[in-house]
Predict the structure.
Amino acid sequence: MTERRDGFMTDFETKVVLTANRLDDGVVIWMTADYRWTRDRAEAAEFTGDLRAMAMAQADADLAADQITALYEVKIDGIQNLSAREMIRAAGGPSVTPPIDRQHDHHGGD
Amino acid sequence: MYQYDRLDRQLLNSRSAQFRDQVARRLDGRLTEDEFKPLRLQNGLYLQLHAYMLRVAIPYGVLSSLQLRGLAQIAREFDRGFGHFTTRQNIQFNWIKLVDAPDILDRLASFDLHAIQTSGNCIRNTTTDPLAGAAHDEIANPLGWCEIIRQWSTLHPEFAFLPRKFKIAVSAGATDRAATAFHDIGLRMVKNSSGEIGFWVLVGGGQGRTPRIAQTLTPFLPTRHLLSYLEAILRVYNAAGRRDNLHKARIKILVESMGISEFAELVNTQWLNMQGSAHDLPAGEQARILAHFEPPSLRPAADAGESIRRYRLQDRGFDRWIGQNLHPHWHPGYVSATVSLKQNGRPPGDASAAEMIALADIADTYGRGELRVTYTQNIIIPHIARQDLPKFYADLVAAGLGGAEDGLIGDMIACPGLDYCNLANARSLPLADRIFTHFKDPDLRQEIGRLRLNISGCINACAHHHAADIGILGVNKKGVEHFQISLGGAAGEDAAIGKIIGPSFAEADVPAAIGGLVHTYLKARHEGELFADCIRRIGHDPFRDALYGTG
């Protein structure tokens, strides 16, 4: 059920952030240092070692409680931190501007 | 166009209610994600890079103005005010909430649209010539046959879990405008020596990581046997297609591995066993469906030649547009017109809600309230009187959609790529814009002439890069986007798979590389020679040399 693109590594050196989508609206979310979920990538905490295991345990609990989906870890050391995919996802939207509908007042907020 | 009856609407409403219940059960935990995923995909709902995405089926690309306004309302109420038209002649909404999806399906059903079978290993939306029923060169109107296939394939219980997705395209023009050779089944309407109309049936075409051109299964199939023959093909594929390897599961692999003769023998054996059974559509039902697609009665058109000439002299934009975006009609006083969804700063295929509403109004004012989505990610409005063209164009310009790009280098097909798609390796959309900027002079784009340039963000080839004069494929080089260039693909009756020309380029270097290819062509071409013909004549070497040097 859990989708973890990078796999849950057993080593305790690797630094990761945890990300998922909220189940009900699909919004991309990140885990904070106090194990909450935020939409703001800047608030995402980097976890290593035991904290990483605790963070993943909380994330798994949220997954089991059907609050989130598509959970995975993003390694922030090494090349994966630079992947275009993760940069675009962290930016919260595409790198192009879609045509603007002047009558539309919803721009991505809840 | 086809009008839904009570049964059609009942089906959509019951399906929508079923999905509402499935979503509720997912949200309260009675369904796990693993259980729910195939159910949401069967209703066109994906989870993409940023959010849920809903793909709505536009049957064979035909929309009424009422339906387009309805899609615009969905874009406004449930998305971010725009939609993305796809190479399957569908539309995608990129910012959908799961909790809203049942309401959206209800809304779609209220104007006779749905998202059924826009994903999953089933028969997908049948595509066709966007000029169908309005073309000057077709031997029959294929839309009725597309509708027959739609009704047959929708929720067909035997074909709900095929080895892999399955795509059918139908074409009836002298020119194949539906890329039939790149489909699992391609149907070309033809006449036999007795003048009877039937289908030339092709099978085993496709793109993706293993591009193949479809082969002839039978050169002539009487139209009355269409459904039984399709059923026979699907039965053979369903039974013999591979399910052990995702990358070898399409029918093209089956046809190639057993050879077209053996495959045809299996199909014919299956088909002969089905003769006399209830697999073909009764003549009365066939006639009922085809009757929805009778040609419109068009009023006699005044000779517009002189006024058009005058307007062309006065307005360079109009002159350019009329030379590029019009298609001949079976009625000499009428045309069909491409509305280009390609321009600098616009992701190819995107349209805002306001633009959709403007196009619906224009189709009502000047056409028959009908629009076509093209697989090249544009809109065509058919049945426009030539005398109305200056006003029609003025309304398009007022809507910001007066571009004269049809078939030119600016008319790029681009998939959503890594900006939206979970499968992509690289971004197609910003690259399309960079290339557009590189060729920003409209006179240069026109001077280059017809040139198809398609950009896929991954090997799944949603943007048909294999079938382009210049194909661009996004690849991932250690987390960095790179782009591989291929040359010499074609989608029509001269279908060909492009060949990779050399090592990939970083994104920033691609526009100049395309510039080098185009410059080589402009230097080498004979008068009036298209890019595709020039490549066939001089080969790839001069183009390769232009990009990589002669060393």
Observations:
- The CA atoms of residues 32 and 160 of chain B lie 21 Å apart.
- Chain B touches chain A at residues 26-29, 32-34, 47, 49-52, 75-76, 80-82, 95-99, 345-347, 350-355, 418-420, 424, 426-427, 429-430, 433, 476, 478-481 (CB under 8 Å).
- The first strand of chain B starts at residue 45 and ends at 47.
